[in-house]
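Our preliminary data section would be incomplete without showing what the modeling component actually yields. Below, a chain of 560 amino acids is followed by its predicted structure, encoded as tokens that our downstream tools consume directly.
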Amino acid sequence: MMQFFSKRRLKIAEQIIIVIFFAVLIPMTVSGIIINNINQQSNRAQLRNAAIMIANIVSEEIDVFDHSINNELSQIISTLEYYQSPQKEQEYLDKINLDLPFYSELAVVTQEQLEKYNVYNLQDDYVVFNRPLSNGRFLVSVLDLKSLKRNLFKTVAGDKREIYVLAGKDNTLVASTNYSEESFQQSLVQLPKNLETDKAVIYGDIKNQPLVYLKKSNPEALIIVNTTKDITRHAIDYNRDKIILSIIITILTVFFVVGLYTSYLYINIRQLFKAIIAISKGNYERRIRLLTNIFTPFEIVFLGNEFNRMVNQIHKSYIQLKKKNKELKQMDEFRSNMVDTVSHEFRTPLTSIQGYTSRLLRQDIKIDEETRQKSLKIIKKQSERLKRMVEDLLVIPDIESARLNVNLQNIPVNSVIEGAIMLVRNDSGKEIINNVQDCTAEIIADNDRIEQVFVNLIENAIKYSKEDSAITLDYEIQESRLVVSVKNDYDIIPREKLKTLFDKFTRIDDKTTRTTRGTGLGLFIVKGLVEAMNGEIRLYSNEECGFCVKIYMPLADVLE
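Predicted structure:
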């Protein structure tokens, strides 16, 4: 055995099992055997003492009952001496019988009549007492045995032992409780031939089921107390089973707790091994994920934390580099979008401005006043459009840094919407249904910023709506806020995609948007401007509205 252990190193689990076997299992088994023996001896002595005590209690009840009967009969005999006629005697006895219902019969009889009374008649449940009178007659009292049983066993009524009271030389059974014919016969068979009198004596062959007899000399009676198997089982076997069960549960609990401890310890150590192997192979992203609970030692947790801290330090520069690369990629996308915007979005208004300006400057043609005014309006409109695009680009840093300045004032919402519609580029000629023109409410907002918001929303609705569809602007008042909705006919957008539309450079990629130029900054700018003015913006897409943007702005005066 020692050579085997010297050649092979035991694992932690194997060592713990050996320690438990010698330090827990063997000591607890020995202790359980000792405790069980002590408990059995104690319970056995308790059963004996209880049986002796019950025999003495019943003996005292017999004495009390006998003394009471004798006193009552003596008083009756003394009273009968004063009556001169049998009729008066019988009337008196009938009255006594009514007052003392446990007497079945009270009568004065002669010697010949006395012989017909049996002393005991168990079938009819009665016992006969007689006392001589002065004139050669006898007072006969027939006592109901049920009354006798109630008086004898009232003190031990809740006990489950079998108690038998026998009387006479032939040991006739007078009263019993928890009667069992088999047990009664066995108790009689085991009685010693020579019985000690006026003393409770233990007898019987089964030590855990003590039998007790008490032979009384006056009055002459024999009391037998039998301890049944059920009492023994409850007092000795049941307690022994509880001790054995508690020891087994304790051992199983120890094995369970130690097993949990060992399993968690083994799992955590394996995590350490795997992490060390991963680091040795160049995998610097591996972390130790310990199962931390009450079974995890402090040293293991400390080692795991320090190991992860070391790996974090190694990867710190890598994470920073990865972050910078991501930022550079975003900047590159932003630059690409900016180039696209400058090359396309700016080109159209600049081309219009340049063309109409050149036309107005020509000297070789004569331009009438109407054409000149029309050209100037187009130049003004394209200049304003160019201004809005520049403002959109300039407002992005302010939104990102949360330092956007707004001048809040009371503004009629219908005039803001009408002004925004006039500034919108609608080359497709799509119908714009403005239901907000009937609204007389005022909102608290920055005039230029809120106009910029609705211009962007209406342009987006025109740009991303189906052909021959209308753009609808509606409003409703909800408590202290005015809700303006911009709806356009469009395919249902998935909820996951809908959540990302407020991000920078995000566009819906489908057959419609692939032919539409844009930076993907419109909703990002709108959201920043609305929130800066204490408003809220929400997006919806369903069969009812297609695509809907709702702007919630605080009312200047809450309408009644």
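The chain has three domains: 12-227, 232-320, 405-554. DSSP finds 14 helices and 16 strands in the chain. Preliminary results of this kind motivate Aim 1 of the renewal.
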